[in-house]
Batch of 3 targets.
Target 1
Amino acid sequence: MSVDSQKVDAVVIGAGAGGLCAAARLAHGGLHTLVVDDKDRLGGRASTEEIDGFKVNIGAIAIEFGGVFEETFHTVGAPLDIRAPEPASSFFIDGKVIDVGRGGWSLLLGQLTKQASRILEKFADARSGNLPDGRQSTEDWLKGYTSNATVHALFRNLCAAIFACNAAELPARAFLTYFTSKGAFKKFGFCPQGTIGVWNSLGSAIRRNGDIWLGTPATSIHISDGRVEGVTVLRNGERVRIDTDLVISNAGPKATVALAGSEAFPADYIAKVRNDLRPAANIVINVASREPLINHPGIVTFGKTRRLCNMANLSTTCPELAPPGWHLYVAYAVPVPALGDFDSDAEVALALEDLREQFANFNQAKILSIRVMRDDWPAQRSCAGYDLPRETGIEGLWCVGDAVKQYGNGGTQACAETAKIVTDAIFAARPRRSAGRV
């Protein structure tokens, strides 16, 4: 294989949420940016594939309004095609949909436990900054106020739905931070093209001052004297070196270190990568049905289940995602443990058992796909509360995405936030300039 050489202002490795948000901001800010990804489509673990005429989302489906994700699209001039279900979120407990609406936590907990006021007091304390330390789990924190099994099941399934972990694995500090100071999925919508539609929109913005090479894996990151100097990729069977002094990796810290070689990094950073990351797993089950399984148009979070945590009704709000006469749903389950090793087949079986138990007509439905997100392709590259810094100790090399989130944040919103933080720091520290086009 020959080695070609080219030069750009910035290379972004990985076309997932964090990478595309970062690339769009860089390109919009005047830096000619090249995005490379080994997959053949945009979106990474939040992309879309077609199965039997259905537009099936690989991972994330809910796009939040009113935060840094939406602001990214406005900033770079990319349309954001999202439809909001109404109501957006409800709970499915004992076969009944409970729409808490404006009543929120107070209305929900008040129906389930006499200890609701004690729990709500702690949410109020958290809003004023009085939080438990990062060592106490959400489960242990909740045990201090109630033993109600349904309340514990709901908290477990909220942890699972948002953070892809169990209540025994998530720091209570992270849980309370999210629900009192982050978006908490109060306002969200679905893309009628599948989630890939939002990434294609960002891709168009990137191409105004850059390029995207799909099916092009990065094979190495070049570092010399503590500074990044470029990236080598494999494109159409040929090695291509891209010279640049700015690389943003959306591949996660572990893969980033592997691309550059651990010897290039400070010892304390390598220790964090080896010891602190906690990849979080979930199970994504895409289901088609002639009969409606549930009429609620948004996302329902379940009460007592084995592994099932929540389910979205996609086709009611976005009928384009399914052929005529079909309903499309995506259900999420989280294994036990979610931050350690588990038997995938056994955990999937428990999730399917939950679905059959929750919906009497589930057996007539058609399972389009079951995807276990784990290991090097997880639901979250690191669970909330176990994130690494976005700085790598190498000048010009940054990480974005769901292993380097702000404390207590989650989802695509958190990935977009990392992109804004990193690109703001880049533009604050360097003069604007232009390089030749790829």
Target 2
Amino acid sequence: MYQVVIIDDEAVIRKGLIGYINWQDLNCEIVGDFDNGLQAIEYLKNSSVDIVISDIKMPGANGIEVAKFVYEYHPHAKTILYTGYSDFEYAKSAIQYNVSDFIVKPSTIENIINTIQQTTKKIDEQRLKDHHIQSLELKLSDVKKKEKLKVIKNFVEGIKMDPSTLEDTLKSHDISVDQFCLLLYKISGLNTENHPQTIQFINLSLNDLDQYTFLLNDSTYGSLVAFDQHIDYDPIELLANKCHDINSFVDEYIKEQIFIGISNLHTNLETAPIAFMEAQRCLDNSFYGKNHLTIYSNFDGPKENPSFVEINLERIMHCITKDKCDEAIEIIMSMFTTMSNNKEPIDYIKSMGIAIYTICINAIHKHNLNLTDVFVNQEPYRQILNASCIDDLTQVLCHMIRTITQYLCEGNNYYIITQVNAYMESHYHRPIKLKDISEHVHINSSYLSRLYKDKTGQTITETLRNLRIEKAKQLLKTDNIKTYTIAVLVGFDDPAYFSYVFKQHTGYSPSQYKNNTQT
């Protein structure tokens, strides 16, 4: 029912409104009646209502002030003001407070009832509109949540986005991660009916943390839990305590077995594939015993030292950026041979492949290159996941390394040429030596000479001379600059030599060229 408050300083009118109208037929209930606005406002400070019916002129606080209070503190409530003809212009000032309707004294009961019915209709329409908006907001929130989980899952699986949109994508999905741990959950048994209950409890247990829980496959789920960089507690210990509670609850109440792996603490989302590898190894450990919770930092099973893994990955990254393709391949072959000899789990080996793939993607992004341009008609990520044996996997990785180092080398060469040309454009008016340019681009002068000639078809000297001549042509089109001045302005110390070079290049002396352009 609609809750109604009546305010009037005349008791007869209050009692008449209450007694002569069948409020129940209007689906309304009188929850309060007051003889002045101050009493009503005090009541409304602690109570909610749907309709406020108030006289305009009252002692203490008038109807306008009541309407203002309702507008500010009960925006969904409707106010009906009743007033005499002489007050009507005054009453119209209340429109700014979203007054629903006015009743002009004297008025019939039928007119008052009709006004109340129109007001309840407005309330119903508003509630329907609010419900629709709320429903849309919930749907939008659900879509945003799914999109956010998709972005996080892509990081975990090593799938990267276009670098030009990466920052905007993280910001638009409200994703900010200073440091994080990855939790993987393996639910045993073939029956998946209880999985939603289990995941619901996991979400509830981690609800006080910034966490993203997602499905990886039919029985494996993951949670990326983010932590602020200034926390004053051990995040691994906190997660371990929560995971013990999860294990106990699932075992006792859902009657399922759940195995949980916790990765190391990481400080960059780009290392999410490594965190996945660590958590996956923890899950693999459950195969050898009844450990329902394994923490990677405490895991004493057969594994490489984490620092050894990170060092190798850093070495591969260094080789890629320095065009040391053969050395990178040698490191990969050594790593995967060791893993093969140790009979490491397949998921762990493939996770290492994904980590190397991630390094390659990062290198592509840092050079502002397009992924599809580098790997034309190739899908290294899928090839890594679908590799049927370790030999196929290393072949995919080695081919990927060769492709990217070659592409980056070409990209670097183009960048070097661009830098050389930019330097000459900025300094052509000064004496320029090959040593100056090589120092500017940080490359050996002999190598730079060969590279520039190979990529442009001209030597650096020829390009610089052509540039100076073109600049001289522009200056010769002006009336008031002498030839010897132009020679100095374009970098020639000797005006005679300038004239010689200019004629060789154009077939005219500087003065002839100037005369020809001015006729």
Target 3
Amino acid sequence: MHQARITAHKGILVVELVPDQANGEGTSTTNKLRNLATVIHDTGRHLGVSEEALALLKMVQRGLDRIGDFAWFSSDDGKDHFAWLGGPKRLVNPTSVAAARDYEILAHRVIPNQVPDGARMAIETNF
């Protein structure tokens, strides 16, 4: 099972899929940028969000469609799921995207805002 984390730097969200080291997972085919979207199941266990990122996620506007740049939804089994358009890593300006129409902040773990160096450099160069 993969984990995901969302951190923030200079007002930009850093959304990334990370292998679950506790289960001994290393690199996998999910590192290839070929996915239309990435989904994390059971976000209460598998999604870490920093306080800084949470404030930015609350700024994301809902769109009119069932899908969007972000979707955070509950399933019939009582678990929450988070999805984002794109592959395992994405930098997102929260004011320039639209979430699914049912998007809301659901279960997650609070994590430190430790932004990877590569993401930090990309944000400072491109945003």
